[in-house]
Amino acid sequence: MEFKQLLKKEILVVISAIILFSITLSISEIFLEKPTIAYASENVAEINTVQEFETALKNKTITTINVNKSIQLKCNIVDIPNRDVTINGNKQNGVVINSGHYSIYGKQNYNGTNIFSVKNIKIIGADNDGRFFTGGAGNGPSSYGWNVDAEDVHYTGARFVHLSEGKLRFSGKDNNVNTRAENAWVHDLEFLPGTIYNGVAANKDHGQFSAFYFNGALIKGKATGEAIIGDNANINVKIGPQSTVNHYYPVFYDKVQKVDVGEDAVFNVDAAGVAFQFIPRADYVNKVPTFNLAKGSKVHLNGRGGGNYSTIKLQYYGAEVNLEPNAELIVVGDSSKSVIESEYKGVTINLRNPTNFEVANRRPNSKLFYSTNTKINGANIDCISAWKQIGGEYQTPAAESFQGGQGFTIDFGKLCDSKTLFIMGDLSGNQKFSLEDYGKLSLKGAEPKQEEPEKPIENTKVVIVTRHYVDDLKSNKGFRFYKEKRYTVEEGSYVQINSYKLDFSFTEHSYVGADRGNFIASRNENPKVINYRYYAEVDF
Fold this sequence. Notes:
The chain contains 2 helices and 44 strands. The protein folds into 2 domains: about 40-445; about 460-540, no CATH class. The strands form 5 sheets. It has a 17-stranded mixed beta barrel. The chain is mostly beta strands. The chain is elongated, with a radius of gyration of 36 Å. The N and C termini lie far apart (about 135 Å). InterPro entries: Pectate_lyase_5 (IPR046776). Pfam families: Pectate_lyase_5. Keywords: Membrane, Transmembrane, Transmembrane helix.
């Protein structure tokens, strides 16, 4: 009996030990096991949780991360290894990444550049401090070693990225960035050809923010920032859409020294005040900042409120605005000061047969320019229309009109005003051109001439003329004699001209030339010759 009871106790002890071991093992699996990530291949991770997302970002071998379910960051993800990595967001399936107050930090890299790519993604960040990606170790000039490629991105938050030492590139047809502050901090910015982008910056209260802040370090002591809008891109930016009070910051701000708008691209900026600006700084890498509109491009800059702020501020000596043929620049403001401000000497606006260059001030009795020694150079300007300072939308016919002719220069702005100083060239009209009196000005290029169809070639015969030159070597005075031979051949045929001699004798010296040439007879260009003393001409 005692033996049986002892045996039962031993059996119970063994069973209890087994149960305890099983429970302990289960607990250890729950708390200690790492997230299991599905790998489509050794470089691609399919993720469904934020833990899997962080693990994949920190795995240097993973270069593609597919986010299949919505996730929310719970902390900063720091020091992700240096390599090119792409995040596919699957926003078409309703997937959302909520970054909240947190950011992904790329590990700082002084020795190279990596690309952090996001595609087809929807991100929501906190509107007071949220940002999705920070290049390098932190904000501002410490963000070395990373560029960001963004394709078909929807972002709402404080800023999309902090990339002060990198380039931000957008592509795709579905980009929407809506931010409490700037859309991004960048060193350089590019919208690839065909990109469609809709951005809103400073979207609350009367916040003073630009759309893109070029706040990176100088390169060898120079400001080198560039904003490039590719061919056929369509870029639309609003700054402070809820505000009509004074607003200082423009679409691109600080160390940007060149803005290029590609062929047939569209660039619209709707700002509470300043829409476009080059700030006063003496370290521009190309000496002067430039705003360049390629053939067929269309740029509309609007300052809705402005008060005392101009829509365009060209605040450096020699700054240039360049319009190529068929380009269009329309600048509208509502300012007691001006629409275009160019108080630094030497600013030039070059119009090379544009579709339209138009400046208008909606505020009555207010001028177009606040300038000092500024020039408008026009080439092939067909019609110039001018309205008095009536304000509003200027729906009445122009008060004055002029012809631009082949070329002219208007020099204006004696000392921060719009006063016309002098006019050179073909500008003509029945009135005196007085820029200081106008509230709207429109300059339109000449219509392109229709090319006449080529006439059919009636005579297919081509005459090749050969000339042999002989120098008078004795007198050494540069006298030259030549003898011609003519060959009539069919156009496009192969021609070989045989050797022959020319013998012009002088008292002590004579020159004998013996040359051979091979030609293709053509009406379009002179046949090329082999010997420099022997050439051919086409005679029609």
